[in-house]
Amino acid sequence: MTPFSTDLPASVPDGVPDSGPRTTDAAWDPRQYAVFSGHRGRPFADLLARVDTDAPELVVDLGCGPGELTLGLAERWPDARIIGVDSSPDMLGRARELDRAGRVEWVEASAEDWDPTGSGASIDVLVTNATLQWVPGHLRLIPSWIESLTPGGIFAMQVPSNFDAPSHRLMREVAARHPRAADLQPGLDRARAVARPETYAALLLDLAPEVDVWQTTYQHVLPAAPDGDPHPVLEWVRGTGLRPVLGVLEADERERFVRDYERELDTAYPRRSFGVLFPFTRTFAVARTPR
Ligand SMILES: C[S@@+](CC[C@H](N)C(=O)[O-])C[C@H]1O[C@@H](n2cnc3c(N)ncnc32)[C@H](O)[C@@H]1O
Question: Across residues 37-42, what is the average pLDDT?
């Protein structure tokens, strides 16, 4: 196998930062993240539908979050050893609570530092869902993850690709006119480390003979909260992309930011009789190593 170019520039052509601040400094909130768990679970199911293997021995969920979806892997493959890796102690705490039977091995590690050979066995399925957008150097890491797979092993990833959607564009615009714009910038950059689908396809095709890369735009219908209640798109991004931005502001500054941003969201995503339509594009990639 030819390793993918090891001399990527500091910022690769489609804007994926190759390094940057890690996310472990801004606490994740499992409760906020769970608000739209039904919508967030759908891409995971669509990704796993393309993972065609009957009896894997070792399955890893990298960036496992609060664990519900990882426990779903344990249900699908009851005889497999399942490891959930995440850098957030809060997310792992929730995962341990949910896993009453102690079915999964929960490991606290960042994707950057995690050793894929550390479990003592080769990995049959490595899943990473809605996580690599938080890992700026992931294009460099993917080859070593693929190398750690068994023959015929599967790497399956999904990342959001909606950074030019109004939800994120408006966040950047409100931040740009904020008095502390310079302080907000690193947080805005942090969750954008996503490449174009063709970049993932080229990288993976260099490493594995069977590769499937695709994009889907979901038309999520979010419940329309009555006027005066938080806009549902605000609630959605509060659980993810808005976290590092709000994390640097004081309480009163935060309130003002949220008020300005929500006003823009109300225009971009109107509350209708059926709810709020929230289109969301995601990129998926599945690669299988030679059997
Ligand atoms: C959007 S959540 C996705 C969780 C789960 N995979 C899901 O689909 O519901 C992103 C997760 O990535 C984790 N994460 C962020 N940066 C990480 C890093 N550098 N290494 C490992 N996990 C990270 C967060 O703690 C969070 O649990």
Answer: 89
